[in-house]
Design brief:
Length: 179
């Protein structure tokens, strides 16, 4: 159980990127989304929480989620290619696999809807402000003037040894770049 709490706390720290995380020079970035998050994890009477920021980057042939901490720097980078994903943490640990979802679950100890993460941040869910996404309850609390989600709350009920997880995402900026 301690491992799950450690991993959940790591997730909280993972989603704590600073906006200094930028793609290397020469990469043809098509889209970038920056935001902040807070997360709390509860299990067996123990509760932990953290906050930070994230950067989602898309380029031709890949997507990447960079997560770090303002004091600790980059804590995680998850790069997704067609049919393959690469996870790297701040200590240099590197995992490769066919699924970003599986790598996140292996590292965190619980599922997070990483495959649907960008669509959650960018999707116009119409008038549906509350919906279910891969076992998570999602509430769009605030939208931009263009109708895109800006403040999103996620909740995952405890099940099969997984903790109760609550997360709040706030999207600060969305950038599209010429191809």
């Amino acid at each position: 159980m301690k491992r799950r709490f450690f991993l959940a706390a790591a997730f909280a720290s993972l989603l704590a990127g600073c906006s200094a995380l930028r793609p290397p020079e020469g990469e043809r970035v098509q889209r970038q989304i920056e935001g902040r998050f807070s997360i709390s994890v509860e299990s067996s009477g123990d509760s932990r929480s953290d906050r930070g920021s994230f950067v989602w980057t898309e380029a031709e042939g890949w997507q990447r989620l960079d997560i770090g901490h303002p004091l600790a720097g980059t804590l995680m980078r998850l790069t997704m290619y067609p049919g393959r994903a690469v996870f790297e943490d701040g200590s240099g640990k590197k995992l490769e696999g066919r699924s970003a979802q599986a790598l996140m679950a292996e590292y965190l100890g619980f599922d997070f809807p990483i495959a649907a993460f960008r669509s959650l941040l960018e999707a116009d869910t119409g008038t549906a402000d509350s919906f279910e996404l891969q076992g998570w309850d999602v509430s769009v609390v605030q939208r931009t003037s263009q109708g895109l989600p800006q403040l999103v709350r996620l909740r995952k009920e405890p099940s099969e040894g997984s903790p109760l997880i609550r997360a709040t995402l706030f999207i600060d900026s969305r950038q599209r770049y010429a191809r």
